[in-house]
Amino acid sequence: SQALTNIDKHNTDYFSGKGGGNGSNDNNGRGGDLRDDSVAITFSSPNNKNTHDNERKPKQYRSKLSPPPSQFSSYLKFNRPALNCLLTFATCYLLVLICCYPMISYSNVDDLANDDEVGAKHHIKRGASFQRIRGRNQFIKAKHAVTDKLGTLKHRAVEWEENAKLQAKREAMKLQEAEKDIIDSIAAGTIGRRDGMDARRASLLLEQAVEHFDEQRLEMEKEGWKKKQDAMAAGQNHWEDAVEAWDKEFVMENNVLSSVHAGSPGERAPIPGVMVLGMHRSGTSMLSGLLVKGFGYETGGPLIGASFDNEKGFYERIDVVLQNDEFMSAQNMGWSYNVVDYDSEKAMHHKDQGKITFNEGKKALEFLNHQNIRHTPYLQKDPRMCICLPTWLELLDEKPAVLFTYRHPLEVALSLKHREENFTLEHGLRLWIIYNMRALQNSVDLCRVFTTNEAVFKDPMLELQRIKNELTEKCGVLRPPTWVITDKVVDEFVDPKLQHNSKVRKAEEEKRSMLKDFGRGCVAREFESDYPEASVNRKAEVELYIMAMSVYCDLENGTAYVPDYEW
User: Fold this and answer.
1) Do residues 383 and 415 lie in contact, with contact meaning Cβ atoms separated by under 8 Å?
2) Rounded to whole angstroms, how far apart are CA atoms 293 and 485?
3) At 149, is the pLDDT very low, low, confident or very high (cuts 50, 70, 90)?
4) Which of 111, 362, 380, 515 could form a disulfide linkage to 524, CB 3.0–4.6 angstroms apart?
5) What is the mean pLDDT of the chain?
6) What is the pLDDT of residue 153?
7) Checking DSSP bridges between strand 514-517 and strand 273-277, what pairing results, if any?
8) Residue 274 has pLDDT above 60, yes or no
9) Average pLDDT over residues 385-410
10) How many CB atoms lie within 10 A of CB 160?
11) CB of 384 closer than 8 Å to CB of 325
């Protein structure tokens, strides 16, 4: 339309000029050159519409412009390149939409759960249209689940503070109760008070002694009157022993209370605990369990758990065992080899030089050296302590008492052979000698109480009561919480099958020929071996067994306990 308007204006101006130059033309003036009216184009102009209505102009101009487009296809040609371009654009656009769909499909930030204002600001800062990024919802749900479970750091800090205050309050109450008990004990420590507390305590102790004696008498009657007569003939009067033991306990209880709470200068402080020394497989675990469960001696922890060869547990602290292994490993030895060459000074030198870390030892000393705040005696048991005791004595603030026990060497060697692979009787007998030798040599300057595995099996109640009394009275170890062991605890640890097996072994041993008589009823007899009778290994076993039996007999008669005993 614009093109036609311009052309019309141009022609009008043009033909208007021509007409002015040929004024001789009449109203029917025709151009001399325009002969054919069919090919002429007539343009009208609004300027001369009235003056030239019938005038016909000759053709002076032929338009070369193409007619204006009338279809969309005139602007864009749908050929192959154009179609390829459109298809590529559409494909890319579709891929962008698919990738951005999770981010643009959600736009309401108010629907998102927030714990606090900080969370809301965080979501708004990131943009409401980008809340559906893959995995974000799972992360938010997990975060809220953890927060709901554990609480915020602030809430947990408040909770910890409240728990600490509550624990401190409980400890304060316990201390008040303990002080009250101490005051009551001191107030009741005078014989003949009007309240009759001492009389009631003495009566109770006497009743317990009588009850214990009656149980022992019934057991003796079941085993036979002859055995009872033999025991009485040997000077063993259970009634007198029981009454005397309870009298000692009654007197000692008042003396301990007076000495502990009087605070008199110059008095010796009580020994904080006891160490059980003895060879592997010698009944140290059973003995420790009876003292811990029966009287309340404290071991701390964590402890080595039970196993197939010790179902009741070992009562050994893991950190002490690991530290003893580290001491030995630094000197190229282990619990079953080269232990005779252990050097305590070299172990301390390794500790000072950093050759050993002593990380486990620090944990153990935190428990063993807290005697100033301890009201219960500790009990530390590890057969390796027979070897490593001198090293620990240099690290302890207070020297402990020692409870030494032993077992028949052949029983120990057979037990080790059954438990360990490639373990010979000769090896077990040699270790038995070394461990017992080092246990007695390293503890010579300490207060010691002696017992045997056989004595514990023979009369557990009486033997354990004697051990506890000697540790408290003779050595001055802290008084345990429980003063009398119960039958329930004894039955839990003392297995009748083991007692029966020991009796069977002794009966079979009596039938065998004698290798050597050491006097006082201690005899070494023949034993079964895996080696032929005339072999070198068999001779080495017999020689080492006789050596071990010599030490065993000296332990039985007490000769091995003297300081100058020749090993």
Assistant:
1) no
2) 8
3) low
4) 515
5) 76
6) 63
7) unpaired
8) yes
9) 96
10) 10
11) yes
Q: How confident is the model at residue 214 (pLDDT cuts 50, 70, 90)?
A: low
Instruction: Identify the CA nearest to 408 among candidates 506, 309, 530, 311.
Output: 506
Q: Could you tell me if 468 and 292 are in contact, meaning their C-beta atoms sit under 8 angstroms apart?
A: no
Rg (CA), the chain: 54
* Strands of 273-277's sheet in order across: 378-381, 273-277, 401-406, 448-452
Gap between the Cα atoms of 386 and 383, Å rounded: 6
CB distance 328 to 384 below 8 Å: yes
Which backbone phi and psi does 201 adopt, to 5 degrees? -65, -45
HSE, CB side, 13 Å, CA atoms: give it for residue 276.
34
Task: Over range 538-547, report the average pLDDT.
Answer: 94
pLDDT band at 283 (very low <50, low <70, confident <90, very high): very high
Q: Is the dihedral of CA 65, 66, 72, 74 positive or negative?
A: negative
Q: At what angle do helices 153-187 and 238-262 cross, to 10 degrees?
A: 110
Sequence-ordered list of residues with C-beta below 8 angstroms from that of 237, at least 6 positions apart, any chain = none
**378, 367 contact by CB (below 8 A):** yes
Least Cα distance to 60 among 3, 16, 4, 6 occurs for: 16
Contact 290, 465 (CB under 8 A): no
CB 368 within 8 A of CB 381: no
The percent of residues above 90 in pLDDT, for the chain, comes to 41
pLDDT digits (tens, 9 = 90+) for 427-437: 999 999 999 99
Place of tokens 């909770």: 159
The residues, ordered by sequence, that sit 6+ positions from 444 with a Cβ below 8 Å of its Cβ are 563
d(CA 208, CA 203): 9
Beta strands in 331-478 (DSSP E): 378-381, 401-406, 448-452
Residue of 472 and 33 predicted with greater confidence: 472
Q: How far is CA 57 from CA 11, 28, 35, 178, in A?
A: 11, 9, 11, 138
User: What would the DSSP string read from start to end of 155-167?
Assistant: HHHHHHHHHHHHH
Distance (Å, whole) CA 455 – CA 464 = 9
The two three-digit tokens of residue 111, written as one number: 């629907």
Residues recorded for the chain: 567
Cis peptide before 481 (omega within 30 of 0): no
Q: Is 343 helix (H, G, I), strand (E, B) or coil?
A: coil
The CA-CA-CA angle for residues 131, 133, 139, to 5°, reads: 85
Query: Per the omega criterion (within 30 degrees of 0), is the bond before 496 cis?
Result: no
